[in-house]
Design goal:
Blueprint (H helix, E strand, L loop, with lengths): L4 H12 L5 H8 L3 H13 L12 H4 L3 E9 L4 H12 L4 E6 L6 E7 L2 H13 L4 E8 L13 H5 L1
Antiparallel strand pairs: 1-3, 1-4, 2-3
Length: 158
């Protein structure tokens, strides 16, 4: 599907404000309401827009302690990576995980109720057959920058 400047602007705006009214969205992209809304429906039908959601602040709802962990696995073959990644998916306290190149295999972000709860969790991981060789824990003392909601037209142009 080829996206033009109107589509890109719609995506940029909706990624920041999914609750914008049809008329405000149309005004923001300089189209009338009907053609603007047809474009939104086309983007939804194409699967580019998957849905709309509220961004919640979990720290207000349930206080959590963020912890970043570098993890290196003992073995470096597909089965060990798959086993580790399955554990990550099955652990609700893991809120982010990326595979990285370099001295470690993964960076994992845990959000646990406390440091003690995190330690019990990582101890269980170490006792499991997931194959962690070494890990380094970093307790977050302050969040300096958090990912902003939404995407920009510049992001879409890449």
């Amino acid at each position: 599907m080829k996206l033009d400047r109107y589509d890109l602007k719609i995506l940029e705006i909706l990624s920041r404000d999914g609750r914008i009214t049809k008329s405000k969205l149309a005004e923001a992209i300089n189209l009338s309401v009907s053609p603007c809304w047809e474009r939104v429906r086309r983007l939804e039908k194409a699967g580019i827009i998957e849905g709309y959601a509220a961004r919640l602040n979990p720290r207000v709802l349930v206080p959590r302690t963020p912890v970043w962990v570098q993890i290196e696995l003992k073995a470096h073959h597909a089965e060990s990576f798959a086993r580790f990644e399955a554990l990550v998916h099955d652990t609700p306290e893991v809120t982010e995980c990326v595979a990285v190149g370099g001295g470690v295999d993964y960076l994992v972000k845990f959000e646990a109720p406390s440091i003690d709860a995190y330690q019990r969790l990582i101890d269980a991981w170490l006792m499991s057959d997931v194959g962690i060789e070494r890990y380094f824990t970093y307790i977050v003392t302050k969040t300096v920058k958090r990912p902003a909601a939404g995407i920009s037209a510049a992001d879409l142009a890449l």
